[in-house]
Specification:
There is one protein chain. By secondary structure, the chain is an all-alpha fold. The chain is built from 27 helices and four strands. Among the domains are: 59-149; 337-435, no CATH class; 437-483, no CATH class. It has helices at 11-20, 34-43, 59-79, 84-92, 95-108, 110-114, 121-139, 143-149, 176-179, 182-192, 202-210, 214-223, 232-245, 253-259, 268-282, 289-295, 304-316, 321-330, 339-353, 357-363, 372-385, 390-399, 408-418, 426-430, 439-453, 459-464, 467-483, and strands at residues 7-8, 25-27, 157-160, 171-172. A two-stranded antiparallel ribbon has the order 1-4. It has a two-stranded antiparallel sheet with strand order 2-3. Helix 3 packs across helix 5 (95-108), helix 11 (202-210) packs parallel to helix 13 and helix 15 (268-282) runs parallel beside helix 17 (304-316). This is Transcription termination factor MTERF5, chloroplastic.
């Protein structure tokens, strides 16, 4: 007799077995403490727990960001091997989890929303993908079940008694901890097992003193088991002290190690320091190392040929040594973009539009990390459909490189409101930064105030001025009307 209580069986096979087997069948579901599910959410890339209320964010923005969250989750599931159809089905069954992703997004970037700034597509992707990766490390092949069952752990249900047993190959389904291979299990045991003294290992105690609690260290270890074996005096402590000497705040060390635990396995004298020297020669501002490492700690783990290839590409695009220095310092993650698969194709596309690629690379290098098919082309077609010429679109992109980093859903919402404002379309060509301001927190309120006063400011005056500058501009405009 086969017990299906512990088997992971696709729904189609369950349906077949229910018609042809005499054994009692059960719907294969998960049962695990809900607090386990949230451990990765709490410690992946943020200090927060995802509790920020969606009610604090305008419904139109929430709707747009739900679409972006769905897109990120779809791409992630497809990378795990799901077909387009299976990924789409999972998304359709995961409404609660999508809401959870958006809520988490707002928690991670709460300060941005409070000042009326919206997140770009890249910022949304960078906030959610590490979290999804942590969940995948936690749950492995049962991630889809976890996502679809959120937030309530389902229970095991008996389906029916059937007629005749038919042996079908199945894959055992294990609880989350059993998904981890033996290497990870041993590493996790090393993190939490008390030694002969009854205390945690010295390197774990040291990390806890730095501000990393045990669960966060476990998350790192699941992603990178070697981290559990780094010695305190030989590996971890020297790197931490080196970072502190560079000016990295102590409070940022846990985040840096979470993002790139491999740093602790790299020799200071043989690798880290020579790599930093090499990067300084390529243009990284050595006075900004603390900020650069916090933004992108993986920078120090790339090979020198890779670093050189990216810098050579920037020079090839016409950037001066000073501009290359600023790009590497402000956007060090450009090193992670493949020259042949990302940078060069994006360059060719923007050149075909008439955009000055050198200027765009300098002003907004992160645009070159976007997908041409999924992000860049749809935005171009959107503006063309609204009557903008290719020359006008190129001008807008050149003036505001971040234009393409916003989702199509956000562009649509802001375009629709722009049509109610009475400005000519040329105002957007002059001031495409309009699309970067929050519709609910900046655009609508200021337009309402301006309209109530019965005056008219240029689009850039209405949005780009500080609160005090905006009020002064309104007073000057009113006084001019009175004087006339």
């Amino acid at each position: 007799m086969i017990s299906f209580m512990q088997l992971r069986i696709p729904n189609a096979k369950l349906a077949f077995l229910s018609r042809t087997s005499r054994v009692p069948l059960y719907r294969i579901v998960l049962s695990f403490p809900q607090k386990v599910f949230f451990c990765a959410a709490k410690y992946s890339e943020s200090e927060v727990d995802g509790s920020f209320s969606l009610r604090l964010v305008p419904p139109t923005l929430v709707a747009a960001e739900k679409e972006e969250a769905k897109a990120v989750l779809t791409l992630f599931l497809k990378k795990q091997g799901l077909s387009n159809a299976l990924a789409a089905r999972a998304i359709n069954r995961s409404e609660s989890f999508i809401d959870h992703l958006v809520s988490r997004l707002h928690s991670v970037h709460k300060s941005r929303y409070l000042v009326g700034r919206e997140l770009t597509t890249l910022e949304i992707r960078d906030a959610l993908i590490p979290y999804l990766e942590a969940l995948h490390e936690e749950y492995g092949s049962i991630l889809v079940d976890v996502v679809e069952s959120f937030p309530n752990p389902p229970v095991v249900e008996k389906i029916e008694e059937t007629v005749e047993k038919v042996p079908i190959p199945v894959t055992p389904a294990s609880p989350p901890s059993a998904v981890l291979d033996s290497k990870k299990l041993k590493a996790l045991a090393r993190v939490t097992d008390n030694g002969p003294t009854g205390k945690l290992p010295p390197h774990i105690l040291y990390l806890v003193e730095l501000g990393m609690d045990i669960e966060r260290i476990r998350v790192i270890t699941r992603k990178f088991p070697a981290f559990a074996y780094y010695s305190l005096e030989g590996k971890i402590k020297p790197v931490v002290e080196f970072l502190l000497d560079l000016g990295v705040p102590r409070s940022q060390i846990p985040t840096i190690l979470s993002k790139r635990p491999q740093l602790c396995g790299i020799s200071l004298s043989d690798n880290l320091i020579p790599t930093m020297t090499f990067l300084e020669e390529l243009g990284v501002d050595k006075e900004q190392w603390a900020k650069v490492i916090y933004r992108f700690p993986a920078l120090l783990t790339y090979s020198r040929p890779k670093l050189r290839a990216t810098v050579d590409f920037l020079y090839e695009m016409g950037l001066s040594a000073e501009c290359v220095s600023k790009v590497l310092t402000r956007c060090p993650n450009i090193i992670s973009y493949s020259v042949e698969d990302k940078l060069r194709p994006a360059t060719e596309y923007f050149r075909s539009m008439g955009v000055d690629v050198g200027v765009l690379l300098y002003r907004c290098p992160q645009t070159f990390g976007l997908s041409i098919e999924a992000n860049i082309k749809p935005a171009t077609e959107f503006f063309k459909d609204k009557g903008f010429s290719m020359t006008e679109i190129a001008t807008m992109v050149s003036r505001y490189g971040a234009l393409y980093t916003f989702s199509l859903a956000k562009l649509v919402l802001k375009w629709e409101f722009f049509l109610t404002m009475g400005y000519p379309r040329t105002e957007l060509v002059k001031f495409p930064q309009y699309f970067g301001y929050s519709l609910e927190e900046r655009i609508k309120p200021r337009f309402g105030i301006m309209t109530d006063k019965g005056v008219r400011l240029l689009l850039n005056q209405m949005l780009s001025l500080s609160e005090d500058g905006f009020n002064k501009a309104l007073k000057r405009k009113l006084q001019k009307l009175i004087d006339n």
